Amino acid sequence: MIGNWPAPLPDGSTSDEMVVKFDSGRSERLLIIPPLFEEANTLRRFTIEVMRRLDESGKDTFLPDLAGLNESLAPLAGQSLSNWQRSVSAAQLQFGATHILGIRSGALLLAPDNANGFVYAPQSGANLLRNMLRARIIASREYGIEETTEQLSEEGRVGGLELAGWAIGSTLFRELETAKFEAREKCIEIEQDRLGGAGLWLRAEPADDDNQSRKLALLIQSEMSIR
Amino acid sequence: MSTKAASEEDIEKLDLGESRTEVDRQLKSIIADVLGLDTDQTDLFTADTGLFGHLPELDSMAVAGLLTELEDRLHIVIEDDDIDGEMLETYGGLLTFAETKVIEG
What we know:
heterodimer, A: 227 residues, alpha/beta, seven-stranded mixed sheet, two-stranded antiparallel sheet, 7 helices, 39% helix, globular, B: 105 residues, mainly alpha
């Protein structure tokens, strides 16, 4: 269930990264790109639960770490959105994925020439940054330090910025400011209201919800069989 | 007169009893979604119920998410300057803030 894969690095070399997989050599194979940063943790259990259900319905699934994220030892500060996009395409080849699912900000890493797939409640890079900047402003105020979105953004664009414990390099910061999932025919957008209840990414602590993971797995499995 | 008192007076003047209940309902629903509570648990919240700084799981990242959700559901915009410790500390503080923002439109 746990394996390794060679994730591309910006300098052209690769980094040995972890992948969680349900791989029984089946014909329908889904590559899952989790959200970036904090939401990857918050939604991890939910994501694995969706994978378990897809496994039961005969689909292989792959949840790879990208360099700089999750268990990766590569420094986050040197990573970029464009390199992660290349990594997703490399992972698609590596695992022979027939379909792809981007969760929340994970949708930002999908390229138009990727396999058919899905995005679940895609989040824009601007929205992601806004939340992280706000978290930093709130935390700083607790220590009596006044910061503003504008001043922090300028700092992020020039020299990178640590936000909520994540060291975001200047390239990644600038890329995130404008990154947005663009709707495309080969990619089905699954909005939160189709799962019932509020998105689990809102939770202060990681949580799961049987009902939501069941619904997401059902939506994906029925579409995977016909597309 | 403090800002808080002024905003409460504004709400009374505008006779927004109904929208006040709606803001209260929405805010409790968001907090329930963030903390993983049932709405009958958040229904027990009073103006003095402690939030940021009182609940260990409600860290700055969770509060940031809560404020963004508040913006989306109440169609308001929260500026950097709006955020202060007093407004986040108790349910009453956050409710008054949200009501004021809704009135300002």
